[in-house]
Amino acid sequence: MRNRGIKLPSNLEKNTAFIFEGYSGDIKMGDFFDTFQYFMSVKELESLAKSTLEDHRNFMRYFKNYVEDVHGTGAVPFVLNIDVLRSYLYHMVNEKGLKNIMVNIRLRYMKVYLNWLYEEGRIKDNLSKR
Fold it and tell me: What is the pTM of this model?
């Protein structure tokens, strides 16, 4: 039997987001986006299709752009909570005028990440259930 080695993503070793010592109940937006890079490394290890990985990146980029446009990148870090997610939903539906199918696709990818954060113990509440 041939030994097939697993190639780890190159950013896995350099990413400090995987160094985690429990949750505080909330996750700061900066940590939310930094941890996403580690999440993507884990998903690459799971051998997800390249198109699926690219969709995860694209939809997170849309959310990050929204957060930066609305909340800014100021020195005061704020935490991810259900209100931020609801305001993003409002933004997609009422301000961007996205069709329901596109909104649901974006939310589905966000829920995958939120579920992962919860299952990994990085957030206290599973925001995807709300």
Answer: 0.78
